[in-house]
């Protein structure tokens, strides 16, 4: 679906709404004061919005010398790549919900039921057997990383065949396999943060972000764009964010009474 008037816009729809051509408005907000720090216009796809987060963080650090201690975002920013970028390259705590499909719902063991030993680089199953990337040595060393950035750990066939827990572990296969992302260390840190009280506070503070988008549509009436193309969307989003910041500044500035002539 391509718009005849604005080919760069993407055909999309949110829940319980009519589909249409749109751009995504991305904000970087200071949660303490609910001030918009940066704005980026993108197409309405998750990969572009995640890239916008990196762009805004880098631009804010360069222009204002401001680096946040934590990033609060929805589950769309919970991919392994962005979490690893935040933890390893920027030192920012990811207060986001991970995109994790490792947990099973069919009654069999999930990956969390297997203990990972980082020193030996193996998983240990509930029966005490080891899952390794390779069970034999190769003349030419292999890293075992797939194109998707995942390492596959698997058990020995003889261990699984003789195991009494096989019906709850791998009932439809000869051996149990587990995939581990190369960014799993950063994901483990995000999981640990999700169990803290600070994460619960971040979830509540996300209302400040959603409120600004609600004001954008209901108070500023920016429910449709007047300019075409990505540059037009960027200009309108930037002007709207400036207006929102000025509204907040007007509330914080001290009120001066009228000056009467004498």
TrEMBL record:
Pfam families: DDE_Tnp_1_6. InterPro entries: Tnp_DDE_dom. Residues 124-250 form the Transposase DDE domain. This is DDE family transposase. It comes from Roseiarcus fermentans. The lineage of its organism: Bacteria, Pseudomonadati, Pseudomonadota, Alphaproteobacteria, Hyphomicrobiales.
